[in-house]
Amino acid sequence: MNIKARVFAILLMISMLLVTACNDNQANGDANGSGDNNDVYKLKIATALTESDPIYQGLVALKESVEEKTNGEVVFEIFGGGSLGEDSDIIEQAKVGANVAVLTDAGRLAEMVHEIGILSAPYLVDSYEEANTVVQSELFKGWEQKLADEHNLQVLSFNWYQGDRHLLTNKKIEKPEDLKGIQMRTAGSPISLETVSAMGASPVGLAWAEVYPGLQQGVIDAAEAHHSATFGANLQEVIGYITKTSHFQLLTGLVTSAGWMESLPEEYQDIIYEESIKAAEVASNNIVKMSADFEQKLIDAGVEVNEVDIEPFKKATEGVYDKFDGYQDLRKEINKILGK
């Protein structure tokens, strides 16, 4: 081989090595949600909600505002309908630093921070305003810090209100005793299961995406949910009655990896926190405003909406607080925050 050929071969080999190294670096950057070339940070957001839900639309508004304010250097990708997996799986990924986030309830987070689970307790608060007051308190901020310090989970905002939850059945319910023998789907958290059991039904932990076929095929007899989720999942096609018990005021949080957040420039972190809280407030207020519309749509679809005296249901679930260490005292502390 002459000298020119040798030089050409050496240069070609060096070029190939450089391309391989760049590709490896880019792949590593994408795996962590960021790339070295343009410092683009990507976050995958998971939710069980569908595109028609006002809370899902709030996530879209959050995506747009964050991308605009960071000049496209922070990019959110939204995966609805549970397409990214179960909440618990996403949480585990976030704990080890993956660039994922999930809109989840406090009951699931109680596995890490016991106290936060009280937000999923029955009849703790009576409205979105009360729930929002609790999650803006110093008490809640302490729980947030514990999640970050001990479990690498960062709350971006916890004021995503999805509405008050009611009983979805195929028989008319007037009182807790009417629930005896009914297999009712609820979230899989211990406090949700305990609450449904206390009301008189047999609780079944089931993924939200499985509720429609579960009711259709008789795997479960009933479920409990808020109006926007009920309508969004077309459950009006497989239920006959909604009993308005308002046993839960469903407040959810957008939770991601604390490590991933810390990898972002501080100005981007501030933007995400601020825009997340703003988007949640707008979406939550839309839920409140649209609740009557969702109810009318369910009625128009043939569902009978049953107004009942909720006092017997409150009395039936009072003992739930005694099942969880410290919750009675925490309830008193929260009542003080609310001025009750």
UniProtKB/TrEMBL annotation:
InterPro entries, alphabetized: DctP_fam (IPR018389), TRAP_DctP_sf (IPR038404)
Signal peptide: 1-21
Keyword entries, A-Z: Signal
PANTHER family: C4-DICARBOXYLATE-BINDING PROTEIN (PTHR33376:SF3), PTHR33376
Protein name as it appears in the record: C4-dicarboxylate TRAP transporter substrate-binding protein
